[in-house]
Give the backbone structure.
Amino acid sequence: MRPIAILQHEALQGPAFLEQCLQGQGWYTRVLRPDLGDPVPAKAQDFSGIVVLGSDHGVHDRLRWVENERHLLADALAHDVPVLGHCFGAQQLALAAGGRVCRNAWPSIGWGRVWVTPEARELFLGARELQVFNWHYDTFELPPGARRTLYGSHCLNKGFRLGPHLGFQCHLEVTEESLRSWCESGRQEIERLRGPAVQTWAALQQDLSPQTQALQRYARETYRCWGESLPRPPWSAPGVSATA
């Protein structure tokens, strides 16, 4: 069975809960680190699906691996290989699909409320609104043919669907442990920022455990729906990860 490729770009922004869910569905996963020199695959059809995670880099950075990832996503779009993008990954997907990525009006860091469009509620157990975790400065325009799935007060486009492809400007993949590490590492960045969508470091830490658990309830359903869109049904034993 072809694995799901997971493209990771930062040590503290790993697949975490997402990989747990995919492996629980019986999928093999292969984590690649293009930023550390892992070659970006040229053919999307070598994989059942492609996941692109967040990054401290921007999609307009002139780095070879950033460009190569976008070529891979364009190939996935051309051959209907489902893509799932988070934050930077969603921006990469939007660009590959003919959209535009630019600076958002304000940085967005911390927990924030987003609303679910009616046609996307099946992805989130019928919920009309969610509390999601954010850490971004840029935003994407909806690419041609895409439909908005999530929207927010301080960033309009928080999610989109384009056929089998899903892009989320927010982070659904986090665990409590990964968030604590990420927030501790970025404390100085948080404390020097101001804006209507930036939480204080203390507020971000408050109720972290119940908020993460609530988010994971919806994320699990989202990942289940995306997994069911993959072109080949899983048959492998749960919890198996391919690293070759």
About this structure: The first strand starts at residue 4 and ends at 7. The chain has one domain: 4-228. The mean pLDDT is 93.
